[in-house]
Design brief:
Blueprint (H helix, E strand, L loop, with lengths): L21 H14 L16 H13 L1 H6 L3 E7 L10 E6 L3 E3 L6 H4 L1 E12 L13 H6 L1 E12 L9 H6 L4 E12 L14 E2 L1 H6 L1 E6 L2 E7 L8 H14 L9 E3 L4 E3 L7 E5 L4 E4 L4
Parallel strand pairs: 1-10, 3-6, 6-7
Antiparallel strand pairs: 1-2, 4-5, 4-10, 4-11, 5-6, 8-9, 8-12, 12-13
């Protein structure tokens, strides 16, 4: 099980009870992330988070926190997931921080980032902004047209706590357990406006290709999970991206050119330091990384 790879945690300093505010929650989570002193006491964690609005308020406070801005490089994009986590919510997204979005084959430290799982995912790099607009939600076709690159990726899943009895909203507050993203080969999105400027020789891909792609995740040469793009939120990588863009716009925010969005787990596996972690995506290629203990 993925949990078998959890490192022995360091003790987090007692805060004598965390104030129930997004700013205090963001500070506790990001401080643990920065120092590696994982939160081990329920009183030091934002267990008060109980609604979708609470989750997004904590994420917004994280994006403005000095650790995010000065140490983590700011918000690089978003991760999608959390299907079924809360009644009435299709899924959720959380910020990705630039420091932890890296190019393959570079890896990360399992212990240093409290990693416990890996996921093969389709990522998108935006070529154009998708700001709020008066005419309402963006269509899937409009979102696709604004994509720059399709990227084969591995998400590394981690947490800033060692608690085992949290509610789903409280878990989601921890940046939805974002640990890191390993970016692999780029593909050209057929029909996107940026496709005309894509490097020659790259594989071309359509939204239907991504929905149907068969992906696998393996660790140390052992297959650990497989699935198709239809496992993503909203039934496909593009559907997941469009949902994220429209939800952000409804909050008065914009998905911006250059930002990366990973669209949800297609295949899942553990993390280990022995051998490569490899995500394969059928004929479109693979991405690999090697982790440090």
């Amino acid at each position: 099980a993925a949990g078998a790879f959890l490192p022995v945690p360091l003790a987090a300093p007692s805060l004598m009870g965390l104030p129930p505010t997004p700013a205090a929650a963001a500070d506790a989570i990001l401080t643990a992330w920065s120092t590696g002193a994982w939160i081990s006491s329920p009183s030091d964690y934002p267990s008060w988070v109980s609604t979708a609005a609470d989750v997004y308020a904590v994420h917004a406070a994280m994006a403005e926190h000095p650790i995010c801005v000065n140490e983590f490089g700011g918000v690089a994009g978003y991760k999608q997931g959390g299907m079924g986590a809360m009644e009435g919510e299709e899924c959720f997204y959380a910020p990705l921080f630039r420091k932890f979005v890296i190019e393959a084959p570079a890896g990360m430290s399992i212990t240093g980032n409290h990693l416990f799982a890996s996921e093969a995912e389709v990522a998108f790099v935006m070529a154009e902004d998708l700001p709020p607009r008066a005419q309402g939600p963006y269509s899937d076709a409009e979102v696709w047209a604004a994509i720059g690159d399709v990227v084969l990726a591995i998400e590394l899943v981690g947490s800033r706590h060692t608690l085992t009895d949290l509610t789903n909203p409280a878990k989601l507050a921890d940046a939805m357990s974002a640990g890191g993203v390993i970016l692999g080969p780029r593909l050209t999105p057929v029909g996107a406006r940026a496709a005309a400027h894509a490097p020659a020789g790259r594989p071309a891909v359509t939204p239907e290709d991504l929905a149907d792609v068969h992906a696998t995740m393996s660790a140390g040469g052992v297959l650990s999970g497989e699935g198709t793009g239809r496992a993503c939120p909203c039934g496909s990588p593009l559907g997941s991206l469009a949902w994220c863009a429209n939800h952000l716009a409804a909050r008065g925010m914009a998905l911006k050119a250059g930002q990366v969005v990973i669209t949800g787990a297609i295949a899942k596996g553990p993390v280990r330091a022995e051998g490569d972690l490899v995500g394969t995506f059928g004929a479109f290629g693979s991405v690999a990384t090697r982790l440090e203990p």
